[in-house]
Design brief:
CATH topology of the largest domain in chain A: Rossmann fold
Number of domains of chain A: 3
Pfam families (chains A, B): LacI, Peripla_BP_3
Keywords (chains A, B): DNA-binding, Repressor, Transcription, Transcription regulation
Oligomer: homodimer
CATH architecture of the largest domain in chain A: 3-Layer(aba) Sandwich
CATH class of the largest domain in chain A: Alpha Beta
Helix content of chain A: 25-40%
Radius of gyration of chain A: 28 Å
Protein name (chains A, B): LacI family transcriptional regulator
Strand order of the largest sheet of chain A: 2-1-5-6-7-13
InterPro entries (chains A, B): HTH_LacI, LacI/GalR-like_sensor, Lambda_DNA-bd_dom_sf, Peripla_BP_I
Organism (chains A, B): Labedella populi
DNA sequence: CCTTGTTGCTCATACGTAGTAGCACCGCAT
DNA sequence: ATGCGGTGCTACTACGTATGAGCAACAAGG
């Protein structure tokens, strides 16, 4: 009964049954509140008493084995939470996921066992897929191995992916920050400030989220008839070439749309080195949510918490109805005003460059 | 085979067995690598082939039911992660826990299902203890209901508690930041700066962590023969009475040891209102790790990540050996130098108060 | 008295795995 | 021929639960 000598067997339904003088099935029926199993109030009471005196607690594992749901939702991050540079990157998603999980009476499983101790995590390890513990899972982060995703989908396991990720033949649903629209909106904002000649400064990384940003930028630029002078746009380099900087210096390019805070910082340094200022000479917008420690960039906000919540909701739908449609969800990113976009006229006024106004060639 | 119409039954050992032309037991033996079960290489190979073609993955749930460990470690926070004022409070612990879990090949279960949607979480809900899913659990946070802890311990469930928590008749192990020693060390530091008359400003909250701080302070003060002039020390008020402030103003008290950053900030405002400065007139040390946004307080660092790691290690020990000793662990807190402690002489020199030097009555 | 229906349960089985016990067979020594 | 030990498996059961099928008892209706 006590803890004195380690752990003793927990009470099970058959123990309860014995004490109450009924069969195990009767106990099960009372517990799972089976409506159409006529157990009279008196017996029912006896069973509940027995449960109380034995301190019986149902075993969720056994329950699940019998085909019921575990009420566990998995969270698989392809990298460990901890070594991530921006501490809050995963955490913000996790908060939303946790919040919604609590509301829907689910517990979360953080899959960490498949890590190599250093960071990278796999779904399949030793031919074992631990995700099956959970009724379904939210996948998160940069998955290096798309075959794993394909396989998981192929097995019919319910999962959603945070962030767009396309895998041929595995049309799993993704919860996607709408970078396309946000990028377009930012271009529009710059346009409204009079800018007509842009440079796009890209990261060296590839991947769907970046494609979306680039797509959004490209189509907005085209639609507005804007002159884009990105030399590195289609190349693999990080794009901060001298040619681009020359464009800023001679005033032929007045606005920069950059993919990351990191690059934005680099850009700022290089501009400063040439005696140019932001937004005095060049307006800059960043296509990710910046940490905001130094410069207050004009940027966008990825609604991580909300995305986490949506992911849980979509996942639960999939778990409950395996035949439900599995469409991806786009989530709007708010474009946030900072201090790095100014109108072209102001730029010309306060600028030290000798260039013509924004519409010049 | 495909995902086209929802989920189909996953392959199990009996399927593999049928395909390989052996019995289910044989498959189990090959999988669990049972050494003393003579399965010749040829059969073994056939089974492995069948596993590969069927894409069989072992079911951890069933495995557990059979008495094996789940390799799941629970994390139970008595409040939700998210609404906590200091976002990183739980998160830092979680990082350590995750780190160590990954290294020891465990997955984590975040118990959120027992919440009321608003924050407070219970261990037992509807007479069900979900913790049993995990092999053992790390408990974390302010547990309002000690009976739950007693019951959990009574059932023999393996768990550790982060932070000291004493429950009569349930001597479970705790991982404890050594506030006693840190508090004593801070008193010593002030002593070394020439301070001889102290005030202790306490929080209105009760609980073991605060008792430890008060104990440490009290014993250090006694041991060093220091004059303590805390009027509110034993009272329930937050202790920032006018009497204390008078003591600072007339120079009869030169140092304050306060329990929280919140109170430290209040103290600073009140001192400023009386024309006193920190550390010019009063030296202040804080007995928790401050956020560091404004003032750089002399304070202490709670090694949260390390505590998380230790918790996991202790827990695993308990899981593996139910009869192992269950002692608590003290973890040293580093005392960190800030900008709010100065030596008494300097205080007198730059101070505007008319009081005598620190040893005066 | 026989049918029909209802109440209050119990029986048996399945879920997927691990492990204990043991069976059939073979080779070899006695 | 008989015993013995080893090889290569299989049979069976337990883990704790949920559930379809069904059975005994009784009541009501004919």
């Amino acid at each position: 009964m006590t803890n004195s000598t380690g752990r003793q067997r927990a009470a099970r339904q058959s123990d309860v049954a014995a004490l109450a003088g009924v069969s195990q099935s009767a106990v099960s029926r009372v517990i799972s509140g089976d409506a159409d199993s006529r157990i009279p109030e008196e017996t029912r009471k006896r069973i509940l008493d027995a449960i109380a005196t034995l301190g019986y607690v149902p075993n969720p594992i056994a329950r699940n084995l019998r085909g019921k749901r575990t009420q566990l939702l998995g969270v698989h991050t392809f990298e460990a939470l901890f070594p991530n540079a921006r501490e809050s990157f995963y955490f913000q998603f996790l908060l939303g996921i946790e919040e919604r999980a609590e509301e829907t009476r689910h517990d979360l499983v953080l899959f960490s066992s498949t890590g190599d101790g250093g960071g990278a995590r796999k779904i399949y390890r030793d031919e074992t897929n631990r995700l099956t513990i959970a009724d379904g899972s939210v996948l998160l982060g940069m998955s290096p191995d798309r075959d794993e995703l394909a396989r998981l989908w192929h097995e019919g396991y319910p999962f959603v992916h945070i962030g767009r990720r396309e895998v041929l033949g595995a049309p799993f649903p993704c919860i996607i920050p709408d970078y396309r629209r946000a990028a377009a909106e930012i271009v529009r904002r710059l346009f409204d400030h009079g800018h007509r000649s842009f440079a796009f400064v890209r990261e060296s990384i590839e991947g769907e989220p970046y494609e979306d940003r680039r797509d959004g930028y490209r189509s907005a630029v085209t639609e507005l008839g804007i002159r884009d002078s990105s030399p590195g746009f289609l190349s693999d380099e990080s794009g901060l070439s001298d040619a681009v900087l020359d464009g800023f210096a001679d005033g032929s390019v007045t606005a920069a749309v950059v993919e990351s805070e990191r690059i934005a910082e680099t850009l700022r340094e290089r501009l400063t080195a040439r005696g140019l200022s932001i937004p005095g000479d060049v307006s800059v917008a960043v296509l990710e949510d910046t940490a905001g420690a130094g410069v207050r960039w004009d940027d966008l906000r990825i609604p991580r918490k909300q995305i986490g919540r949506i992911a849980v909701d979509r996942l639960i739908e999939m778990v409950e109805d395996p035949d439900a449609p599995r469409e991806s969800v786009l989530v709007a990113c708010e474009v946030v005003e900072g201090e790095t976009i100014a109108s072209v006229r102001a730029a010309v006024r306060s600028g030290s460059a000798a260039g013509p106004d924004g519409s010049a060639r």
